[in-house]
Amino acid sequence: MPRRLAGGRLVIATHNPGKLKEMAALLAPFSIAAVGADAAGLPEPEETGVTFEENAALKALAAARASGLPALSDDSGLVVPGLGGAPGIHSARWAGAQRDFNAAMRRVEKELGSAEPSAFFVAVLALAWPDGHVECFRGEVHGHLVFPPRGGRGFGYDPIFLAEGETLTFGEMDPAKKHKISHRARAFAKLAAACLRPAE
User: Fold this and answer.
1) Which residues are CB-contacts of 165 (< 8 A; sequence separation ≥ 6)?
2) DSSP notation for 25-84
3) pTM, whole model, 2 decimals?
């Protein structure tokens, strides 16, 4: 039986401002005050897992234990079958220490060459408590890659990803719509159904 979270403060275990903004927007209807890892003074743990689930749980547990509050983390990435599943869990690392996703998108385009451009985004959300309890929820959205990148909205690989049935990349799409159909939104819907109560 999943453990439920009823209001209060929740640490968002990310140092990525784009992810923090998205998750705070998703949490707004639940009367939960989101506190970013930077604001809470939490270090960024080394991601040593080999799956999205392992890395999400690792980050959430580290933040919950350090802050004494429940913590929500996200591990997400772009999976390109034509690249053997890369960049996958290494999606952020492809952007380097400077988080240069323009360079990362150029690398994807170069390495993919003429291979099949199908791709999907994965997001795993982990909700952890200071006592070590953790719940994980996975969401995926499938589509294909387009080059050159299109749109300045979103973050990460959004400008090269076109979801199935859509005409706008995640980088062109209105954030309100993206929040309804993205991999993170799909994972969050599962988490909300299991662990959250809407505000009265």
Assistant:
1) none
2) HHHGGGTEEEEETTTTT--------SSHHHHHHHHHHHHHHHHSS-EEEEEEEEE-GGGT
3) 0.89
Provide the 3-class DSSP secondary structure of residue 63.
Answer: helix
d(CA 46, CA 186): 26
Bridge partners for 33 per DSSP? 9
pLDDT tens, position by position, 113-138: 999 999 999 999 999 999 999 999 99
Whether residue 3 is contained in a domain is answered as no
Domain CATH for 142: 3.90.950.10
Q: Please name every residue paired with 163 in a beta bridge, in sequence order, or none if there are none.
A: 143
Structural domain count, the chain:
1
Residue 27: name the closest of 14, 46, 41, 44 by CA.
14
Is residue 1 a part of any domain in this protein?
A: no
Q: Residue 196 — very low, low, confident or very high, per pLDDT cuts 50/70/90?
A: confident
Task: Please list the active-site residues.
Answer: 75
Distance CA 45, CA 65 (A): 12
The residue range of the domain holding 183 is 8-195
Question: Helix or strand or coil: residue 85?
Answer: coil
pLDDT, one tens digit per residue, over 50-60 is 999 999 999 99
Answer whether residue 45 is part of any domain. yes
The answer as to whether 102 is a domain residue is: yes
Cα–Cα dist 163/23, whole Å: 20
Residue linked to tokens 């999976």: 79
Alpha-carbon distance of 169 to 15, in angstroms, equals: 24
